[in-house]
Amino acid sequence: MKRYHFIFSLLLCCVLAHGQDITLGGNISVEFVPKKVYDFATVSVYYDYTQSVFPGGKEKRYGETVLLIGPQYWGFMDWNSYKSDSLQDAYAAKGLPSSDLIETLTREKKEKGERAGYLYPMVANRSDGTCTIQMRATSFTPSYQYEEPLPEMAWQLENDSCKIKNLDCAKATCKFRGRSWTAWYTEQYDIPFGPYLFGGLPGLIVMLEDSIGDYSFKLSGIQATPNGRPIYLRNKKNLVIYTTREKAMQGVKNECGDVSKALLARSPSMARQHNGALLNTKKSVPYNPLELE
Q1: Which among 181, 187, 186 has a CA at the least distance from the CA of 196?
Q2: How many Cβ atoms are within 10 Å of 90's Cβ, its own excluded?
C-alpha cells in the first residue's frame, strides 16, 4: 500500500476516508450532501462485507453495508458512507463549520477504524423492475451511473440447510455475470432481497459468497426504521458520470489502471499545486470488480 501514499496525501485537503467532498476552512459552513432521494426505508438490514484486494488473493478489505427497504424502492450501499452523509447533513442543518465535521469524522475514523469500502451503491424500483447503479474505481474517484432492468437471478434451490445467527437457512446457488454465487436465505424474514442485486429467493439472504471468496456478505443485524431512512444516490455535479453499464465498467477498469489520470480529471488544480508531478505519474490500483462480465 505504500505505493499509493502519494495519492492520499494529495487528497488530504479535499477528500475524507469516507469519500466525502468537504471544503476545509474554519468558518465555512457545511453543505448538505447533494443527493437524489428515491424513497424512505422502514427496514434496514446490515451486512459485514469482505472483498479480496486482488482476484483470488488473501489480502482483504473489510467494511459494512446496508440494505434499505422502502414501500416503493430498495437500495444497497456502504454503511459508513451512509453514516458520514447523515452526519454531514446534520451539521449542515445546524449551520456548523466544516472544520467541526472534519474533526468529528477524523476522530471517529481513528477510534473506530471506519472507512468506506463498498463501491457499488444502487437503488431498485419495486414497481417497474428497474434499477439505478453507481460504480467507482476508488472511494475518491467519480462515480459512473447507469440504469438497467433488474436482472433475473437463475437460482438453483439446493437440498442443504443450516443455522446462521440462530436463523434457519436454506442454500441456493446461481451464476451471475462471471461469478458463481452461493446464498443462504431464511424464510423467517419474508423479505425477498439481499446484498446488491441479489434477490428473488423465498426469504432474506443471510449470507452470500462467490466461489473463490473474492466477495462475501454476512448478516450482522436487522432494524426497523419506522420514521423512514432516506434511500438515495449522491448526485454532486461533476462527480457523477451518467452513462451505460458497458461504458461504466470500462471506465472503472481504465481508472484502476491509471488512477492519477482520473484524479487529474476530477481536479486539474491538484497538479498545479504539486508542480505538475501528477501529470507525469501513472499509478494503478487493484482491479477486482463485483461483476466480471
Answers
A1: 181
A2: 13
Give the separation between CA 263 and CA 281, rounded to whole angstroms: 11
Alpha-carbon distance 33 to 11, whole Å?
19
Strand 73-78 with 60-69, pairing: antiparallel
Q: pLDDT-derived band of residue 7, with 50, 70 and 90 as boundaries?
A: very low
Q: What is the reported pTM?
A: 0.86
Nearest in space to 63 (alpha carbons), one of 83, 52, 47, 84: 47
pLDDT in tens, 154-201: 999 999 999 999 999 999 999 999 999 999 999 999 999 999 999 999
Handedness of CA 220, 222, 228, 234 (dihedral sign): positive
What is the distance between the alpha carbons of residues 127 and 73, in angstroms, rounded to a whole number? Answer: 8
- Locus of grid cell 446484498: 195
Residue type, 225: T
What cell numbers appear for 113 in the block? 477504524
Q: In whole angstroms, what is the distance from residue 181 CA to residue 217 CA?
A: 11
- Check: CB of residue 49 under 8 Å from CB of residue 134: no
On the 0-12 / 13-18 / 19+ scale of CB atoms within 10 A, 272 is: exposed
Q: What is the pLDDT of residues 259-287, one digit of tens each?
A: 877 766 666 655 444 445 555 566 788 99
**Cβ-contact 102, 23 below 8 angstroms:** no
